Structures are given as structure tokens and as C-alpha cells.
Amino acid sequence: MRSTETYTGRALRRREDPRLLAGQGRYVGDIEPPGCLHAAILRSPHAHARLRRIDPEPARALPGVVAVLTARDLGPHWRPLPNRFPHPALRYYPQYPLARDKVHYVGEPVAVVVATDRYLAEDALERIVVEYEPLPALVDPEAALAAGAPVLHDDQGAPDNLAGRFSQGFGDIAAAFARAAVVVEHRFVIGKCAGIPIECRGLVATVDELGRLIVWNATQTPHMIRDILAELLDRSPQEVRIVTPDVGGAFGVKEPFYPEDFLIPYLAWRLRRPVKWLEDRRENLLASIQERGQVHHAALAVDAEGRILGLRDRFVAETGAFTPWGIVVPVITSSMLPGPYKLPAFQCDVEVAYTSTCPLAPYRGAGRPQAVFVTERLLDEAARALGLDRAEIRRRNFVQPHEFPYAVGLVGRDGKPLVYDSGNYPGCLDQLLELIGYAEFPAERERARAEGRRLGLGLAFAVENNGMGPFEGARLRIEPSGQVVIATGACSQGQGHLTTLAQLAADELGVPLERVTIVAGDTDGIPYGTGTFASRTAVNAGNAIVLAAREVRGRALALAARLLECSADDLELADGTVAVRGAPDRRIPLGELAAYAQSPFPGRPHPEGVPVGLEATHYFTPSAVTYSNGAHAAVVEVDPETGAVRVRRYAMVHDCGNIINPLVLEGQLHGGFAGGIGNALFEEVVYDANGQLLTASFLDYLIPTADQVPGVRLAHLCTPSPLNPLGVKGAGENAIIAVPACINNAVADALGVAADETPLSPAKVRALLDQRLSVQD
Predict the structure, then answer these.
(1) Distance between CA 196 and CA 202 in Å, rounded?
(2) pLDDT tens digits, residue range 389-448?
(3) Which of 150, 205, 292, 761 could make a disulfide contact with 136, Cβ separation 3.0–4.6 Å?
């Protein structure tokens, strides 16, 4: 009888794509309840200033304006946004929904207008009279920590601009450097970037006939949004429903709770009318979170054979004006600096600085690209100093396959010790060198040099901690129609969850894939959820679905055994039907079993001993995080006249454990690589000395185009994680993490100078060329 296909591990096309490609997606921008009002936000034009006076009356007098609110109009609901990511070192100065006495960055919300359409709302913003007393801006994080610097949060009693200070380390770092044959020490500058989802943020909020607040929000964390919003509104979570419709990308930008996540629902609740707000691209660049932004002073000590003796780092991380995700990013950076290498000694000292710029929080990669950039650049410089092959110095320092689980000696972002669960780093490197043509590259370089062209090859290796908890859940039920409906808090922003999660359930339940429906990101679908970030969905939601499906499968077999008067061991489940093995005529479809379990006839007794419904809810709580890894190699060409860098070919070997859908995985890797190209060569958030954003449109904030992103030579090496039933590890971010380090190493190889700043714009490459010429002179 068993004819049901096996889906897990197959490269199936995404089920959601035909609808989206046909223009049938339903995004926040497509949702407009009858009588919907539109909101617009007045944002600070100053990076740092005192608010002396706000007069909203001229805006209120404009026909079509329904409400204009300032901080004082919020009354008792003018409350600080809560800190959901505490850390012993964090000095938390909260943001408020609207600035009241002081503004802290260009783009901070000052007032909100609600009108009958967005055009009127925008016009009304220009009528609000605001008097500011400008104060000195704080743009440079190192200068912000200097003695005598203006204090950004003096309005909350801050003594200085320190957001946190902490250290991590192990071993005798002084002794390691004292006995080193070679010490390389560099200053690394890692510029800030923005997340740039194709769809900006947005919300629509309304109050239903029962007084319940319904919010459509393009968020990654619907349950967190619900809980914070309920808290700020003095409501129970049951009185608030958050629904994530189709979401056009996120990359971390849509993780935090922003002021607008309070303001728009609050206005709908206060006015008892639907209210809609859509962020435009300028607002997105001004006020949606940014990331990276670190300056490192790091040194690597190695012996004469190239074996690492110790790594020492001191860095300043910028957090912008507030800490919407705590100091998670620098914590991740500090803990992931060892990468795939065995370090006898390590010391990292971190300071986190408030600046009068847009707040920083995790963006795809989240602190790991900075760590990889530092360590991989130092390794290349150590190899150069020793005259050692760059691949060989890495090979000599890898954690070996037989050494897993491997305790690093540091503490991760979740407060637990870092213990790498699985991997085969030498195996990844071997495949990588074949893919990129490492052995043939010296001859290729010589041919290019004879033609007046400059080629370079770079390597970099990334380890990513992912799949973290605290949990994710799945509520799975079989309908009388035979359809399997699964609700989870892991909402999709384009990752393909409706396909991959359905593949897992279909296999466990023995049903065709088309009979599985995934309902994600609706807080009414499942009461608790964590969300989609940190490459955690396959580990958490995937295993929750599998465990819930196994429970429902067991119930179905037990009920069928009762009705067919046989042992459950004699049954098999395939094509959505339970049948007696060897007697195919004795069978019951799953839908009929579900109907029987639901007692569809009112007034009749429910069958004794039969649980109500074929359904189960399971929450998967991982015991520890998983660790995926990726080996990267790039061949670049540098134009010495213009400073332009062109990536000629790129190779990547990736290990995320067992693979659910190779096609979806490769999409994630290609997408991450494209983001990495942007981070490495194009994308940089730039402020002037007054804290004014100079990259407030795509004319100035550059993103790579299709002809600047080459195809990737991909290979997979699978070492299953022992930490979860599926053996999976996260896959959404590893592809972006190593790209800047890899490309900088390739540029350094092409030019023969250290390339210690990212992104590498043409002007910065020209500066490197000038530096090389001055050294030669």
C-alpha cells in the first residue's frame, strides 16, 4: 500500500511562489479596513537637541486631520519601551514612543498625525511647530566614550555614553604573546549597514466589535509584539491579536519593538477606528535599525609553525541612540572570535557606546561578520609574515572532527557556555580548495599579471551559533476533510517555511504535501511563540512540528486499531489513509478518523476512551544551540585606476546538518551571499559630523545589482547535530558572515597590502594603492 512520497531531503519548489509571483500576495500595504485612517510620523531633524516647544494646533486645524499627538498627549501611556534582552553589563536607557524633552537621533519620532489619507497626514506634519535647542552630535563611537564628551542620555541620568563594558577570556594571554614567534596586530574598522528589506515596515490596527485589538504587522516576532503591546496598553495578551500577513523580507530589521508598534495600535484603540502606517524608504534608512559598526584593535600570536598561541582583542561597538536588542551584537562578536580554531589563550575587552545615530540591533549575521573579519584577516597576515600558505595555517589550527563536542571556553548570547556540537572543518576546506581552483590559481594570477590585470584570492571560514531557544511551538490538527493544519509562531519573511515545514509534517503523517497547511505568525493560532530570527526555525519549529505529528500519528493509529479491531502494530499510514498491512480493503482515511474523534453528532456520547480530536500541541525547547559552518573562497579583480573590485568567482562549502530542502537551502545561501557582497563592497551608512544621514536614499546608499553578484559554486558537507531529532542546524545567515573577510583577504592578496576596513569602496581601495606606493617609495 505504501505509495506516499518521501518529501524531506528533496529539492521541491516553494509552494508559496506561484501565488506571490502572480501578484496575489497580501502584504500590510494591501490591507485597508473600511474607514481606515492613515498615520504619518514627525521625526527629529536633529541628531541631538532639547525639545523646547511643540505646538500641534496648526496641524489639528487642517481639514481631514483626525488627531495629532505629542508625548504629552499620551498621558499615562507615555511609557518606556521595555528591555527584553537584559545583560549584567547593559546600561539601559529606554526609548519612549514619542520624544518629550530631548531628541537623540535624526529620525526619532516626535509627533504623530492621523488623517483621512496619507497625503493630508504628511501635509499636516509640516504645520507642527517645534522649537529645538541643538546640542553637539555624537557620531564617532570612540569619541563618544572620551572624557568630556557630551552625554546623550543626561535626560535619564546617564553619567556618560557607555552602554556596557564586559570582558571574556581564558588561558594565559600574556604568556602566549611572550613566547610567540610572530605577532600581528591591526586596527579594523567595520562600517555600519542597513537591512534594506524590499518591503519596509508597516502596521494596520483596528478594534473589533468585541473591543479586541487586531493588528496586522510586518514583523518577525508577533508574540513578542503582542505581549509588549498588551503590557503598554494595560491589556491582557488575550485582548490583542497580532497577524503577520505576507512579509517582504526582514533580515532582522523587523525583529524589535519600535515606537510605531505602540503608536499605531494605540491610535486605533483610542480613536476606535482603523489606522494604517507604512514606512517609506527614507524613514527606513533613517529610523529602522542598523548594524555592524565596530572598531577593533586586535592581535594574533602564533608560533614558528603557524599554530595559534593566543588572540587578543579590544573593541568599541556602536549601539546608536538606544539598545532595542540589548547588547546582543557585541556579545556575539566577542564570543565568536575564535571561529573554527583552537585557541590556547584568548582575551576580549568590549565597550559599547551610545551615539546620536539610529539605534543598532541584529541584522543578518548579527555580530558574527565582525568576528570573522577580525580573525580571518589576522590569520592571513600571520601566514604572510611566516611565509606560510593561507590554507595551511587554517588547517593547522582547526578543531578536528573527533574533538566534537568542543568546549570553546566562552559564554554565548544565551548565557550558556559555547560548545560546538558538530562539524568537519578540514573536510569543508578540502572541498572548497577544489571548487575555487586553489592549486591552479598561481598560474592564473601570472597570466592576468602579464595582461596588466590584478587578481587576488581570499579565504575565510565562519562558524555560526544558531537554533537558539527558548522555544517554538506547533499546534497540529487533522480536519475531517483530511487536511492537516499546523499553526506555529515561526512566521516567514520569504524563507520558504510553507514548503519546508510542510515537508516534515507530510512525511511524519504519511499524507500528500498538498494536504498540509501552515498557518504562521498569527497569535490566535498558537498561544506562545518566539519568532523568526537567529536561523532558528528549522531547529525549533521544525522539531516541534515533527514531535506534534508523531503524537497525532500515534493517536490516529490507536483509534484506527480500535475501529478496525486489530493491533496498531499491524497498521500502516500512507496517502492519508490507515490500513491493515496485507489487507488493503481494511482501511480508514485520516479525515474519517478525525471526524470520529470530534464526535460530530451533537447530543450523542463521545466514544469512551477516545481523545477529542486528532490534534496535538508541542513546544520544542532546545537544550543548547547548534553550530553551522561555512568555508568561503573568492577570486577578485582590482582595477588600479578606479579602485573598483569585481568578484570573478566565489565558492562556498556549507554545513547545516541534515537538509530539509536543498533548493530552498541554496536560495538562502545565494541570498546571504548577495547580502555579503553588499556588506563587503557597497553598503555603508554614513553620517556627517552633525549626525545628518548622508545615505538617506538609494542614490547614496548603494546596494549590489545583479551583474555585481556572480554565481556561487556551492557544495554541502553534512554533519548532523546531535542536539535535536532532525539533526538540523540553522542555515539562514552563514552565507553572509564570511563574505567581507573573504573579499578583503582577496583584495589584500591582489594588492599586497593590508585591507583592514570594510566595506571596501573604490575610494578606500585607491587609498590602499596609495599606501602601497608610499611604502615602496
Answers:
(1) 14
(2) 999 999 999 999 999 999 999 999 888 999 999 999 999 999 999 999 999 999 999 999
(3) 150
